Amino acid sequence: MKRKNEIPKSEQIDDDDPALLFSKNLQKEHRKTSGKYVSATGRKLFKGAFPENRFGVKPGYRWDGVDRSNGFELRWFEKQINVKERKVLEYTLAEDE
């Protein structure tokens, strides 16, 4: 039998639930206690500089620092910059006329 004041299991919060780390407040608290180079899930992160990627994912601590990509990310960022510059240029030229 279900009691009137009982909280459903789906709404109960467990302390060991890894999904809780995706909460912004809990991420801040977790990083304060565990160090600067730790992901939201508690895994260690690479401490050096690394190339930017589309998704903003930081490499793990075992990454050796060698970029083994085929250049797609670089071309993707260049294309995004060109599109933004073209929009600004079109807008400024339209204002001059």
UniProtKB/TrEMBL annotation:
GO-annotated cellular components: RES complex; U2-type spliceosomal complex
Domain of life: Eukaryota
Gene Ontology terms for molecular function: RNA binding
InterPro entries, A to Z: Bud13 (IPR018609), CWC26_splicing_factor (IPR051112)
Example GO BP: mRNA splicing, via spliceosome
UniProt family annotation: Belongs to the CWC26 family.
PANTHER family, sorted: BUD13 HOMOLOG
Full protein name: Pre-mRNA-splicing factor CWC26
Originating organism: Ambrosiozyma monospora
